Protein 1
Amino acid sequence: MNAPAPVIRLLVCGSGDRGDDGAPLCAVAHVLPALDAPLRGLLEVRRCEQLDPIDLIDVSPGEACLILDTVVGVEPGAIVELSLEELALQPTVTPRSSHALPITQVLGIARSVRGSLPRGTFVGIGGKWFGFGDVRSRALRDGMDDFERAIAAAIAALATPQEVAG
Amino acid sequence: MHTSDLRFQVQNLTRVEGEGSLHLTVRDGQVSEARLQIFEAPRYFEALVVGRTPNEVLDIVSRICGICPVAYQMSAVHAFEDLFGVEVEPATRALRRLLYCAEWIESHALHIYLLHAPDFLGYPSAVELARDHRQLVTDGLRLKQIGNQLLALLGGRAIHPVSVRVGGWSRAPRRAQLTAFAPALHEALQLARATVDVALQLTPPEFEREPRLVALHHPREYPMNEGRIVSDAGLNLPAQAWTEVFHEIQVPWSNALQARDDSGLPYLLGPTARIVLDHDQLHPLAKEALDNSGALESIRRNPYRSIVARGIELVQAAADAIDIVEAYRPPEAAAVAWRPRPGVAAWATEAPRGLLFHRYEVGEDGLVAAATIVPPTSQNQAAIEADIALFAPRVLGLPMDEATRRLEQLIRAYDPCISCATHFLDLSIDGAPA
C-alpha cells in the first residue's frame, strides 16, 4: 500500500549578493515555475541564510526535506547529491551556509533532538567566487543547468510516495 | 631542551568561532609562555572599505561575522553619525538598541547551550549533549531562533542585516510588526531566566585570578551603543578616544593583532567586564537575576562563570527588548538627511564578546580613506594567554586528552570569535616526557 505524497520542505540556503553563494536562489527561481502544479503544491519553501538545526527538527515524520546550497571542496560547477545521512557523516564537501555551526553539528544536533534525520536529500553546486555582488563565476554558470535538473529530479524523487510496510 | 621542559600544542581549538590553536611552553613546572595562535587567514576588511561610501561600509563590515554582524554595523554607523553631526530620532535609537538585543540573544544562546555547556556536563559536543538533555538543547535553539527572527524582522536578514543606514534605516518596521513579535520575546525572557538557573548549576573548575576589566559605561542604561570607556582601575574616556589609551600590537604567532593599554598589560572585555562594571545599569529583571544568583564576585574572579554572566545578559536583552517593543512608535522618517564631512569618525559599542572599536578617516570626497577595526577577541587574546599561563600548571600532570579538554574549556569561557569553524582536537607534546 502506498502512503500519500509527502510534503517536501525545500531549504534554500545562501545569499543572493555573495557571488556564487546565490546559486540556489537563482536555481529555484527557474525550477519552481516549471514544476507541475500538483508537485509544486507539495513544497514548503523556506529560505535559509544559515542552516539551523531547527529547520530540520520540526520536519514531521511524513515529510521529506531537500537542502540546496553552494559547496566548496569540489570543482566549481560540479553537482553534489547526497542523502542527509551521507552528509551527516564526514562530508568531503562543505556547504557554505552553516555559519554558527558546521554542517555535521547542525545535522547531528537535529538527529539527536529529533531521534533521526528526516528523509531527505542535499543538492549542492561547487562554487568558486564569493565576493560582494550578484555576479556568478563562469564555472558556476556553466553548471547551473545541471544544478536545476538535479533539483527537479530530487523533488520528483522525494515526492514519490514511500511504501508502507504491511 | 631542559629535561623538565614541555611543549603543549593544542592543534585546533574546537567549539570556538574560527581557526586557532594553543601552544604552551612549560619550564620547571611553570608555564613560561602561552600563545593563542590565530592562523585564520587575514581578511583585509580594513582595506575593503577604503574608497567606499559610509553606507557601503555598513553593508561590508556586517560581513565580518555571521554571529555578531550587528556589532560591526553599530560601531560604524555611530562613528559616521558622530562625525557628520547626525541626530537620529529617538525611535531610531530604540530600534538600534533592539537590533543589538536580538544579536545578544542569538549569540549568547549559541555560546551557552551549544558551545560551552557541553564542557560543564562532560560531553564532547552539543550533538552528544542533545541525546541526553534534549530539552536543554531545544531551549537553547529556540532562544537562538528568537534572536535570529528579531534580527530578520529589523535587519531584513537573520544574519548580515542590511537595513541599517546612516541617519536611520532603509525601512523602519511598523508598530504592528513589532507588537506581533512580543509573545516571542516574553518566551525568550522565560527561557533566559531559566538559562541563569541552568548556568548557576554548572560547577566551574576552581580557578580564580584578578582580571583587569574594561567596558563601556552609560549613566542610564546597560551599555550597548553608547557610553564612555571605563575600567575597574578608574579609566574613564570617551568612546571615540580608544586610541588615546589603547594600542594594537602584532605578535609573531597570531594573524590577529593584539591590544594593550598604556601600561602594556592585558585586559578583559565582554560579559564579565560589563556585569562587574555596569551591574547598576542592568534592567530590573536582570538585576534581580544577578542579585538572586549571588554570583557577582565569582563572575569577576572565575572566568568559567562567564556562562552565568551571559545568562544574565540574556535576561537583560530579552527584558530590554520587550520594553522597547511595547513603547515603540515608528520614526517620522526612516532616515534623516545627512551630508558627509571630512575628518575622523570613531566609536565603540558593546558586541556580545566585548567592546568593539571602529575608526574611519573620511576624505573630502565623502569616501573612507582609512579604517581601523579592533574586535573584542583581538583585545582579549592577551588576557586569555595570561589566564592560561596561570591555569595550565594545574592540568600538566593529567592525561593529555584531559589536559587538552580543560584548557579548551578555559579558552571557550571567553567565547573567542575567530570566525566560524569547528574541528576535533589534536594535542601533541614535543619535548621531554611528562
Protein 2
Amino acid sequence: MKVLGIDTSSMATSIAVIEDNKLICEYTVNTKKTHSQKLMPMIENMLMMSDLKIKEIDMITICIGPGSFTGLRIGMATAKAIAHVNNLPIVGVNSLEMLAANMDLCDKNICSVLDAQRNQVYTGKYSFENGKLTELCDVDVVEIETLIDELSATDEEWIMVGEAVYKYEEMVNNTKNICIPQPSHNVSKASSLCSVAIDKYSKNIDVKDCYTIYPMYIRKSQAEVQYDEKMKRLNDGK
Amino acid sequence: MKDIITLAIESSCDETAASVLRNGREILSNVISTQIELHKKFGGVVPEVASRKHLENIDAVVQEALDEANMQFSDIDHIAATYGPGMVGALLVGLSHAKALAYTLDIPLVGVNHIEGHVSANYIEHKDLKPPFITLIVSGGHTHLVEVKDYGEYEILGKTRDDASGEAFDKIARAMGLGYPGGPIIDKLAKEGNKHAIEFPRAYIDEGYDFSFSGLKSAVLNYLNAKKMKNEEIVVEDVAASFQEAVVEVLSTKALKAAKEKGYSTIALAGGVASNSALREKITEMSKSEGIEIKYPSLILCTDNAAMIGCAGYYNFINGRIHDMSLNAVPNLKIGQR
Ligand SMILES: [Zn+2]
C-alpha cells in the first residue's frame, strides 16, 4: 500500500510516499514561500522523480493541526481533492504527535511544541512505551513559561521537539531536565507522518474520507471569541 | 466538434459554489452553499469563519454539482477556479482544491478573476451577447466601469475612489439598524418610500468615469444624526429610497456616458448590486431615448456563483490562458490582470 503524506501545518511544507516499510521519496522545503506556491509543484515534482503516478496512491495522510490556520487548509483542501477523485481514505494525524514520531524510541518523555504566536505554543506530551508512541495528555495551547514551569516541576527527563524551541532556546537551556534534539528532528517530516498514519490505519483509528476529515484548530476565530465575550457580558447583565 | 465540459469552483467570499457547464454558456449544474446565516451574528463576513466553512463544504458542493449535471470527474475537460480578488484565506480553499483536482485528473487548470466572472454571467444569460460592450460592475467590493473589448480583454474606464456601491448600502443599512446584507433590505424598504423625500448629494466628480460614494454616505449619516439630535422621527423607507436613488442615478449616468462616448450600444450590468431593482429600472429608463440596450443576469447569476467563473474560465481555456500548479491566490487581483 502506497501512502502519500502531506504536512503544511508549520512553515515547512513536507510530503512523502511510503510503501510498506520503505520510504520511496520525501521532500521538505522549510522556507517562507507560501504553501500555496510550494505544495502542488512539490507533489508534481516528487512523484515525477519517483516514477509514480498519483493514481497509484492508495491512502492519504494529512497533518490536521494545530498550526497555521491557512496552512492547514491549503494542505487539507489539496488532500481532500486527491482523495475525492480517487476515492481514497484519509488518515488524520495531529502536528504534535507527528513531531513526537521524529524522536522514535527515545527513552525520555517527549514534549512537542509549535509556535502559536502571542508567546504561546501548541503542545502535546508523549512517550514511547514498549516501542509504541503513547499520548500522555490532550493537545493544548499554553503560555511557554507555564509549560516550562510545568515540565521542570516533574522529576522526569524531557526532550522538547519542534522549531518553536529555537524561539525560546535560552529559557529551555536554563531548565536542567529539558533538552533539545538536533535540528533535523525539529522540523515536521511527512515520513514521520506516514509512519504514524500507517499504524493508525492498521488499528482503524482516525480513518476518514474527503467528507469527514476536519482540521484541528484548537483556537476559535478572533471574531467568535469576541462574540462569545459580548454575549457573556450581556448575559451577566453588565 | 466535441463538447467542452468545465468544472468551476468559487470561494472568494461567503458562498462555496461549484458548477458544471457545457461549452462555457450552458449550465448543467450551479450549486451554491451560502454562509449568510453564519455571518449574520457578526454583522458582516468574517474571513476566518468563512474559510473554515468553505473547507467543510467544498467536497459535498463539488459532488453535488457533478451529480446534478449527471457527470463524472472523468467527463470534465478542464477546471476553473477563482484566484482573486477576494479574501485570501477563502480563495485558497477553493483554489487549492481546484489545483489538486486538475492535477489528479490530469486536465488543465484555469485561474479566473472573480470580477471577470461577474461580467461573464451575462454570456450565460444572454446567448447572443458578444463583445465588445460596456459593463458596469457593482458589488459589495467593487464599482467599475469597464470596456469589454473581447472575451477576456478588458479596459478599465473608471472605478470608485472610496467605498464600493454595495459597501455603501451595507454601511447605511447598519447605521439604520436594518441588518446585513444591506443591499436587498434597502431595495425592499425603498419600494415603500419616496425617493424624492430627501435630496442627497450626487458625486459626478468632474464628469469623469470614476465614482465616489463616501460623500453620499456621510450625508446620509449626518441626516440620521441630525434627526436623532432633534428627536425627530426618521422615515426609514424615505431615507432608503432617497439614498438608493442617489446611488443608482450616478451609476446609470456614468454608464450611459461611457457607452455614448465610446460608441457602444450595449451595457451589461454585473455583480451583486446588479440585482438591485431600482438600478435596473433607472438605467433601463434612462437608456431608452439613447438607443442603448441594457442587459443584466437573472438574480441567481448576480450573486456569487461558480457558473459565471466557469464561463469566464471556458473563454480563457479556449484562448490558451491556462495556469500551472504554482498558481497562488491574489487577493487584490485587477480586472484584466494576467
Ligand atoms: Zn462577487
